[in-house]
Amino acid sequence: MNRKLNKATLCVQAGWQPENGGPRQLPIIQSTTFNYANSEEMAMLFDLKKEGYFYTRLQNPTNDQVAAKICALEGGVGAMLTSSGQAANFYAVFNICGAGDHFISCNDIYGGTFNLFGVTMKKLGIECTFVSPDATDEEIEAQFRPNTKLVFGETISNPGCKVFDIERFARLAHKHGVPLIVDNTFATPVNCNPFDWGCDIVTHSTTKYMDGHGSQVGGCIVDSGNFDWDANADKFPGLTTPDESYHGLTYTKTFGKMAYTTKLVAQLMRDLGSIPAPQNSFLLNLGLETLHLRMAQHCRNAQRVAEYLESDPRVAWVNYPGLPSSKSYELAQKYLPNGSCGVLAFGLKGDRDRAIRFMDALRLIRIATHVADARSCVLHPASHTHRQLSDEQLAEAGIAPDLIRLSCGIEDADDLIADIQQALDKG
User: Fold this and answer.
1) Low-confidence residues of the chain: pLDDT under 50
2) How do the residues of the chain divide into helix, strand and coil, expressed in percent and rounded to 5?
């Protein structure tokens, strides 16, 4: 077929293409190694002169077929799966940053990523400056340095549920000769393709909506192929100068638009090895096949629940991009016209303990360190996912002490609302 396939079809059909007489379902290639007839053929694989498989730490057929599906959904040129979403964000940054480098990130990101960027990567000599997504262009531009290598944000922030102005941050990043990396976990490619708005690299925690059933932990990095590394060669020597570990090969000259992805696999995955198990990739693929159906239900449920919470006098505030009262409403209409996600943030009137009592009283919605699942779950970030942050860091990350993160699953919305009502009634 020559026509461009729609996302629903890509969710089901992209990636694995069985040959005549081959298995219709994606096979699990549970093997560490692959057999070759002669030494020369293996040598060419190690020199990146031939495509193929020789050791699963670098590449595995099952993993690659699932990566190809996500790549097709995002509209990229190359993709690589990782063992977790955290690994995906680390690899995406570390692929173009080294000791002595600097990058900029929005501050309203997932607590684990905030800590990764602000604490762990600092130990590697890589410094991150956090900026508010509401800062002016001038305030953000003032944070760029000669050694700044990228800008990072989340399409929909976790847990604050703010919509990222992709086009604006892409413009600012490109003005300074660096790429924009966007974590698209909450929106998924079903509801947003950041590449359409100037983003260069996308990351995902595939643990969330893409899997959708809490059955595996994983991540993915997708490259648009649009960023011109050679035009900014002095900033990205790892891509534009010879790699001595591959006999002086230069990624941009040898692989063109696949330079970034090839370096991810051939250098970082080779050396650090944060691979997903083929079995996990198989489970992820099952989730991807229904992603387009589940996202629609997640969004319908979250909209209903958000409207109910906003109407209840015991609720102090609600933030969901689908509500006209949300500060992100206009951005959501621009970037997420078909729906955002199933996650919303809200606070109850009263003290911090009020939020804890409410969550403990829920029966259908469960307390879990998870989000974006078929089953509804709830969390108090200040006590759970962001517990490692000080009060000052919580404020910097935009996490209010009363913020409750509610992830609406694909159950019946009336049942979810009834559970919330009875928990509120218990005070």
Assistant:
1) none
2) 40, 15, 45
